[in-house]
Design a protein that fits this description.
Blueprint (H helix, E strand, L loop, with lengths): L5 E9 L2 E5 L7 E4 H9 L3 E5 L2 E2 L7
Parallel strand pairs: 1-4
Antiparallel strand pairs: 1-2, 2-3, 4-5
């Protein structure tokens, strides 16, 4: 059985610290920029913004 990605939401950003809301947690988790970008590109997490899926844009 394939694992479903965890739906998380970016709540706030303060400098290079990102506040991410996980399901079943009342308080957002604070992560640094490096970990945030690893999570953003990982198939284990799906970032949501309100009702829309947040898509990462790639530029040269």
């Amino acid at each position: 059985m394939k694992k479903q990605p965890i739906e998380v939401r970016l709540v706030n950003q303060e400098g290079n610290v990102y506040h991410i809301k996980f399901p079943n947690l009342e308080i957002p988790v604070k992560v640094n920029e490096h970990l945030y970008y690893k999570m953003l590109h990982s198939p284990e997490y799906q970032f949501r913004s309100s009702d829309a899926v947040v898509k990462q844009t790639y530029s040269a």
